[in-house]
Amino acid sequence: MADDTGAARAPSGTHDVLWPESYRWEVLVAAFAGHVERAGFGLAHTPIFEDVRVFRRGTGEGSDVVGKEMYEFEDRGGRALALRPEGTAPIVRAFVQHRPALPWKVWYATPAFRYERPQAGRYRQHHQLGVEALGTEDADLDVEVVALADGFYRSLGLSSFGLRINSMGDSVCRPDYLDLLRGYLAERRDELCPEHRDRLEANPLRVLDCKREPCRRTTEGAPSLSDHLCDPCRDHFHRVREGLVALGVPFEIDHRLVRGFDYYTRTTFEFSSEALESAQNGIGGGGRYDGMVEMLGGPPTPGIGFGLGIERILLACDAEAVFAVMPPGLDAFVVDVAGGDAARDLTATLRRAGLRADRAFDGRSMKSQLKAADRSGARLALIVGPEESAAGTVIVRPLRHGDRLGGEQTSVPLNQAVEAVRSAGSSGAFDGAGTA
Ligand SMILES: [Zn+2]
Ligand SMILES: [Zn+2]
User: Fold this and answer.
1) Which residues 6+ apart lie within 8 Å of 324 measured at CB?
2) pLDDT digit string (tens) for 109-162?
3) 55 with 88: CB under 8 angstroms?
4) Rounded CA separation 138/358 (Å)
5) Under a CB-based contact definition with an 8 Å cutoff, are residues 127 and 310 in contact?
6) How many Å apart are CA 7 and CA 110, to the nearest integer?
7) ∠75-79-81 over CA atoms, to 5°?
8) How far is the CA of 167 from the centre of ligand 2 (A)?
9) How far is the CA of 225 from the centre of ligand 2 (A)?
10) Considering every ligand atom, which ligand is closest to the CA of 177?
């Protein structure tokens, strides 16, 4: 908690997001909200912690995020809880509890917690934007969800990223495929990585997903699930691909893209940035989970969603030199060397009029207050000295930021200060999303 000098520090693997970078986060989340709400998704807030069984059953006990990385704890009442490692299971839990009308389309912005080895681009608390849509198997919903993520990246200015998709099949066609894959892998057991040599029978899909070179080489020619789908799954996958083509969303099929649980079905997808190093280039992904609602005790209800990592998206934006958002500056900074009444009252008047205004405190010197005014990024300084105070006026002085008055200062009656600031024009940064 503290460094060598005893000063408090954030926990290992976490990071603070401070102004002005935090303004970029604000704009990002607002852009996402606007983007998905236009497609009928509504915001859902669920608790940051849940009964640990929500994740054991919902996300899956055998996944690394639940099995090895979850922050689990017992509260003072002896309840087994966990900080959410991902965003889908809590939404599915909320669905099971409230049974909203179908289809149910929600979005969220949330921190997610994973006890990972801290390294660049990996955090123990990272942040996600996501959507979940429950209540229909319609392949056009898969298209909508995938295209929504693709369109969001593009709206930020990103273009160097790829989309991989696959079909996981369902409980009808996957068992036969798993037997086929098991047979293929068993014949090549000695060529697999040490972990999967012993564990291929239990979950052969995880071998396809293995990042180690021996497994990657061996599975290169493995039978692919998308070639062994039953008719309904094949039709579904066909309709998804057709839809993505129709909407102009580029993709490639990756037969290694799998999720190792029975409740993940059919469409699965991942986006990766080509501008980031491959170890941390995943910028988002998701898929169908037609069995998960049942795992959490609800009625059979299909669902699909995605989660996008905010930190990774912003890294990708930096790498592509896009989405360089600058916070809007102040309209005015009040400099008062006549006792402070004007600073107190004029800033309040300006703010009530909807303008951005700030001031200095502690009765500092004119020079010090003007320096603060410059540093604030305000367009104008409104200066009140003893003379102005006596005359009921205020000096309006353009500062070097966004100077549109030709540098000339003017004197106006105090009760016209709001109008003077307004007529000096907007800083132009109000719209926020000025991309570089
Ligand atoms: Zn392996
Ligand atoms: Zn099938």
Assistant:
1) 317, 434, 435, 436
2) 999 999 988 776 689 999 999 999 999 999 999 999 999 999 999 999 999 999
3) no
4) 53
5) yes
6) 28
7) 75
8) 9
9) 10
10) 2
Q: Choose among 100, 99, 102, 84: nearest CA to 46.
A: 84
Ligand nearest to the CA of 194: 1
Average pLDDT, the chain: 92
Whole-angstrom distance, CA of residue 270 vs CA of residue 267: 10
Ligand nearest to the CA of 215: 1
Ligand nearest to C-alpha 137: 2
pLDDT for position 285: 96
Q: What type of residue is 432?
A: G
> 248-272 burial string, b = 16+ CB within 10 Å, else e?
ebebeebbbbbbbbbbbbbbbbbbb
Ligand closest in space to the Cα of 237 = 2
Q: What angle do CA 166, 172, 176 make, to 5 degrees?
A: 80
- CA of 229 from ligand 2 middle (Å) equals 5
**Confidence band, pLDDT 50/70/90 cuts, at residue 401:** low
pTM of the shown model: 0.91
Distance from Cα 170 to the centre of ligand 1, integer Å: 24
Q: Looking at this protein, which amino acid is placed at residue 224?
A: S
Q: How far is the CA of 266 from the centre of ligand 2 (A)?
A: 8
Q: Residues 314-363: pLDDT tens digits?
A: 999 999 999 999 998 999 999 999 999 999 999 999 999 999 999 999 99
